[in-house]
Design goal:
3-stranded antiparallel beta sheet; alpha+beta; 22% strand; 2 domains
Length: 227
């Protein structure tokens, strides 16, 4: 199961059974209590936030209200609400062993002491493709200062799809192929692509973006990490 399909299957127990406090169990907000406009919590997490609109559903969780474009999103949230909470930063970057387009294995330790931009992408993902030229520019501009951009492809066809795609567009930063029993996208907690992680020299995730980042935001974060 790939990101954008990967909603956690963990179910929450209702009530206070098993020591779960009542206020920690997601509760539906009645239709007549929904606001006129709100931001969809799921769209915001996936980087496709489209501003405020009239919500179709709402859920209260741990004293806070969350609103959604449709009932399916609300149901997904209620199954695993912690998946939609703001990320903990900084936190250790998950270890990985992935193959390059040349079939060579590479690990997180191979980039020890470097600032990493780990970009999860796919050839079929339009915002991913639109972001990649910016990743190339950052690699060229800051490589001498210690930045390494790592493009991690989640394409199921692997090297057959990715190699000609990369060669045609002349991207020169390292491209890795994700997959196996413990794919890196799952270890990083990726739910949709593009997903971008900034990793410090100490191996800590210090920033992350879901969806197409705002122009200049990533470069500012990179500059700060390189200081």
């Amino acid at each position: 199961m790939k990101p954008m399909q990967a909603i956690s299957a963990l179910a929450l127990l209702a009530g206070v059974a098993g020591g779960v406090r009542a206020q920690d169990v997601p509760q539906d907000i009645p239709k007549n209590e929904l606001p006129q406009k709100a931001v969809c919590a799921v769209c915001e997490l996936q980087g496709s936030a489209h501003g405020e609109e009239r919500p179709a559903a709402g859920v209260r969780y741990k004293g806070k209200a969350y609103y959604f474009c449709n009932g399916k999103e609300a149901a997904a949230f209620k199954q695993a609400p912690e998946d939609y909470m703001p990320p903990v930063l900084p936190r250790p970057a998950p270890k990985f062993t992935l193959k390059t387009l040349e079939e060579k294995e590479t690990t997180l330790n191979d980039y020890k002491g470097k600032i990493l931009l780990v970009d999860f992408w796919a050839t079929w993902c339009k915002p991913c493709v639109e972001t990649m030229p910016e990743m190339q520019k950052l690699q060229e501009k800051y490589a001498a200062k210690g930045l390494v951009v790592l493009g991690v492809s989640i394409d199921e066809k692997g090297v057959k799809a990715v190699r000609p795609f990369v060669q045609k567009r002349k991207f020169t930063y390292p491209i890795l192929l994700d997959g196996g029993d413990r794919p890196a996208w799952r270890e990083f907690g990726v739910k949709s692509v593009p997903a971008l992680f900034l990793v410090s020299r100490e191996g800590q995730i210090v920033r992350q973006w879901t969806g197409k980042p705002k122009k200049g935001d990533v470069e500012e974060a990179v500059q700060s990490a390189l200081k």
